[in-house]
Amino acid sequence: MKYNPNEIEAKWQKYWAEHKTFAAKNDSDKPKHYVLDMFPYPSGAGLHVGHPLGYIASDVYSRYKRHQGFNVLHPMGYDSFGLPAEQYAIQTGQRPEDTTSVNIDGGVDKEGKVIAGYRKQLDKIGFSFDWDREVRTSNPDYYKHTQWIFIQLFNSWYNKSTDKAEDISTLVAVFSAEGNANVNAVCDDTIELFSADEWNAFAKEQQEKILLQYRLTYLAETEVNWCPGLGTVLANDEIVNGVSERGGYPVIRKKMTQWSMRISAYAERLLQGLNDIDWSESIKESQRNWIGKSVGAMVDFRLQNSESSISVFTTRPDTIFGVTFMTLAPEHELVAQITTAEQKAEVEAYIEKTAKRSERERMADVKTISGVFTGAFAEHPFTKEPIPVWIGDYVLAGYGTGAVMAVPCGDERDYAFANFFKGQNGMQEIKNIFANVDISKEAFGSKDNVEIANSDFLNGLNYKEATKKIISALEDIGQGKGKINYRLRDAVFSRQRYWGEPFPVYYVNGLPQMIDAKHLPIVLPEVEKYLPTEDGLPPLGNATVWAWDSLQNAVVSTQLIDNVNIFPLELNTMPGWAGSSWYWMRYMDAQNEGEFASKEALAYWESVDLYIGGSEHATGHLLYSRFWNKFLKDKGFAPTEEPFKKLINQGMILGMSAFVYRVLPFIHVKGLDARFPLSPEKSSVFFITSKYNDFEKYKDVISKSVAEKSINGIKKYLLNEEALQGRDEEIEKIKIEDISVFQISTNAIHVDVSMVNSSDELDLEKFKAWREDYVDAEFICDENGKYIVGREVEKMSKSKYNVVTPDDICNEYGADTLRLYEMFLGPLEQAKPWNTAGISGVFGFLKKLCRLYFDENGLIVTNDEPTKDNLKSLHKTIKKVAEDIESFSFNTSVSQFMICVNELSAQNCHSRAILEPLAIVISPYAPHIAEELWSLLGNTGSIATVPFPVFEAVHLVESDKEYPVSFNGKMRFTINLPLDLTKEQIEEIVMKDERTIKQLDGKTPNKVIIVPGKIINLVG
């Protein structure tokens, strides 16, 4: 009998699927445990070995909890809407729904490429997912509920008095009875007061416009990240170094009318909720910083010669007498109004320039100082002095009010700005308002030990006293008040894409109307192309059937739009985070057609007990999902305030990239004394070396080959050089021996790791056949004629050609080997490099495990009573593995398995009483071989829910001790003695031992040192 992982794993995966072994029940008497993975985006590249890391960890934990008697919900699905699928569709001329389906289910795409499919890849690894609950966010039966949640948000407002979302009808009732003067709501800043009579007299259209200013999802002109190359708005986390993460296209800031979500209404609850969840402190801190709570004051600076004023939020109102200038964000709405004619050209040029920088780039760049004077002046609230108003890109339109009162003596950026523009356009000298503080070299930003000076009625006060007094004074003159501010901004919810959830919205006279929930889903229409229309409308503008018939309650041809009964539908789609902001609740009741989940299912599962996923989602998905959960809790749907009790961020498995080094020679041409670098365009050959310092060694070889193969290219280059005009005859006479290489540089080129063996040797023929321009490559190899690649640990990525697929590992070694190896690599939360060479050791361990149970002739398990050592090895492992899984220290469990199997092998243990529980203990990690061994032992059914063995401490209690016996501190032999012996008894036994008598050779020791349970030492 032989260990054949492929045969065993196929057998048990089929068994699990047929018997629905891992199906969770919504009405079980068992205690529940909900384990969730951040579901994958099904890209065309499929899974690499880095992707399953978190899934394996969650699967080990899920299987362990089943062994403990829990009803475990461990589902899986696909976050299948998004920009990558749309871009792939545009590039290949395929429908995104088709490519997404193939990427999930497997098949052959339009280009003839065979796609394994996520589902098959996941199944091959042996995950214990409840596949009956699978969700795909791009399926209409899923996103109809996303559309329904959007409608609920639209029909809600946030009541600050009750600190929760309420139905918009309650707000309308207040307006009808008493107007809006006493309404304590999260709403737009430009709300105008009206009485009940005025409200009731407003036309319906006017009422709808007012309600839009209060709704939790609303239309507004918003500053967004616009990517012309992709034709869509991007979220901050979709931009890297000022360009789109997808495609590397430039991104600019642009104002557009967009749907937004009033996540800011939940800022304080999102902040406080972090105290109630078991997440890493680093993730909590990321969210705290993103929410950015600040306590301070709003101050109004009136503009000279204008009825307008600049509102500023500041955390240091105590420094108001130190204001020497003001800075507005370039996008601030007042900039166009206040800029003087003389400054207009300069201001507009600056705005155009800064629009090309993302907010993240502007926030991160603390060194660059730039700005432009608007020509306008504000007035100090108390001194009435003129204050020049500048614009600068270090101020962001979305943070605070998009304006700062600049106090250079107390802020480093203001200090640098003031010094940079010193003496220009009314930039005043820096005022020092701190007593006994030197600001000649830097600003003083501390609040501690502050004594305010040169500040009129604040002189002599500390920070707290001055803050309290100035807020009171501002309120007295009607130019300010105390305020708590949050950095968190309302989330833009529109995307100019095709492949996303359609909004359940149509427009009557430009105002949004919700489609009744009973008519959902509103399904994506067919379009000929997925690019924006010629006049710049989103891709849905290409749809010919995309209008709403309000009488038939159906989507009809756009040609029928009459704005009487048939109206235009929304052309934008929802962002990628829409479907992922509530998916864990759908898993609770995934087959429910009438609602996103029944109250009974929601009440039973409540929330996710363990969530495993990447830390890169800290301020995206994890924040948005908490927001939606809190909203649904307010509306009586979600049973808990927080969606995820415990969160673990798995580290990244890094790829071991392989490199060849392309030699770029610097050429000297004798006679002409011409020196120049020989770029690939000037030469028909390049060399590749594995070492940077091989030039001198191979200088003659390189020179000769370059001369022979590139002479014509070199001549052509020289003939076109201006400095050599008129020397054509000399150039034509250049001979091979006139050309030499005097220096080289090298650049690293990624190589597909599939061309490299475990000894880092490159398959030269495969490399040459890889790309057309590598066919003539010459290699500088080592003394054995082998080319050894360079190695570097990097992110595993298709673009770096360092991807290892789990399919290859499973085919060669089996899924159990892959699972154990990924857990063995290191602590779950840490990044670690992948090294395929280590796989064979784990595979060898599994074969050794099997040899405890069977040999080539079959089962060798006996009913012999286990020995004391057998029991000790087993119970050490039970204890260690249980503790490790509970603390998510999976790597040390694998080490313990190896120790245990080695010990049992040395003990020649084949006892059923040991090997049966051992199969259960190893089952969460290596479920296929555990199932097979369980079956071979004569058990029926699956091992998956068999109770986990109980640790018995008695088997670890030592009854004897292997003592080292030393003479004058040098150990000479060991002796095994019972631990309950006294010093006297130990000494008597040792002194009578033949080995002691031989060592002493008739002498009597001066002293016998005995520490029971530790040492025996005879001295003298």
Automatic annotation (TrEMBL):
The keyword Hydrolase belongs to this UniProt entry's keyword annotation: no
Span of the annotated motif 'KMSKS' region: 795-799
Domain Aminoacyl-tRNA synthetase class Ia residue range list: 11-155, 790-821
Keyword annotations for this protein, in alphabetical order, are: Aminoacyl-tRNA synthetase, ATP-binding, Cytoplasm, Ligase, Nucleotide-binding, Protein biosynthesis
Chief location category: cytoplasm
Outline the extent of the Leucyl-tRNA synthetase editing domain: 288-474
Which molecular-function annotations from GO does this UniProt entry contain? aminoacyl-tRNA deacylase activity; ATP binding; leucine-tRNA ligase activity
Give a GO biological-process term.
leucyl-tRNA aminoacylation
Task: Fetch the InterPro entries from UniProt.
Answer: aa-tRNA-synth_I_CS (IPR001412), aa-tRNA-synth_Ia (IPR002300), Leu-tRNA-ligase (IPR002302), Leu_tRNA-synth_edit (IPR025709), M/V/L/I-tRNA-synth_anticd-bd (IPR013155), Rossmann-like_a/b/a_fold (IPR014729), tRNAsynth_Ia_anticodon-bd (IPR009080), Val/Leu/Ile-tRNA-synth_edit (IPR009008)
What compartments host this protein?
Cytoplasm
Query: Which family, according to UniProt?
Result: Belongs to the class-I aminoacyl-tRNA synthetase family.
Query: Which residues does the record give as ATP binding sites?
Result: K798
Zinc among the record's keywords?
A: no
- What does it catalyze? tRNA(Leu) + L-leucine + ATP = L-leucyl-tRNA(Leu) + AMP + diphosphate
- Top-level taxon of the source organism: Bacteria
Q: What is this protein called?
A: Leucine--tRNA ligase
Annotated Gene Ontology cellular component terms: cytosol
